[in-house]
Amino acid sequence: GQTLAARCRPVSHIVFLKTHKTGGSSVVNVLSRYGESRQLRFALPQRYQFRYPEPFRAESVRGFRPGETFDIICHHMRFSPTEVQRVMPNDSFYFSIVRDPGTQGASAFSYFRAAAAAFRRAPSLDAFLAAPRRFFGPGGRGAGLARNPQWFDFGLPEPAAAAEVPALLARLERRFPLVLLAERFDESLVLLRHRLCWPRAAVDVFAHNTRGGAAAPTAAQRRRLRAWNALDWALYSHFNRSFWRHVQRFGAARLQEEAAELRRRRRRLQERCLRGAGPVPAAAIAEPRLRPFQPPGAEHAVLGFALRPGLPPAERRRCGRMALPELPYTDLLARRQFGNGNGTEWDDF
Asked: Less Cβ around it within 10 Å: N or C end of the chain?
């Protein structure tokens, strides 16, 4: 609101560490729309990720020149602070998102069946969890996705002893003053909006990359996933505690009120923008660029959004940007930034 704007200055230098299967694609949509609407410069990968799973290197940024910085970086990387500092201003705001490995692990197993050798070899999640070491090798393809993927994404070292973990996480929190929780996504967006001093509409977002027909993991599966991903569980537990400290400082009642308002606005936007007022299978999406990427071998199809026909041009553009999956949005940002069209060909949406 206006009072927020009067008290602070909008943040436009942003480092978002996008972790895997945590709701990060929805956050990237928020950042893409904000940055595009304000002509901010994105540090973009050559393709869609920064040479993941290699640690991030400044040279992997498209158009990188030593000494030049960008405004926003938000695509998949394995975090390396010194390298990120080579491409981002010193006053950048760092944030990320984490998810309980009890559910993140099940989602990753389904999504990365082809990308992670350990998951591909296992006939089912239960078979994998019964004897994960039978299928997992630390040097195997996609190993960073199959065990402690969030710890891996943060670029943290393998601790020599459990006693080292708290100090590593305390240091990480100094770098990332806000870490969102996937399980409290709307509350997270409210906290983020206030930290960034952005208008309410900036964090309106649809839930990207949801899976059709995916059953929630059982209590036993969740327990085993947390045990297998013990470092992720430590990381998640740490940032869960810090999240609730943020909530306390913000005011729990005020946060609930703003999160409820965010959900009301989302419902209205979904009804206004989307056929079916929510996510639909890719086959039901006529517009090719609105169809989300389907990972090979995934157990469940990724859902996307189809726009309602007959929207007025300005609304169609706004709805289209909110519905646009990450990969085509990345292409659009690259075109706007590096030529080959300025992105106006997308304005018809």
From this structure: N
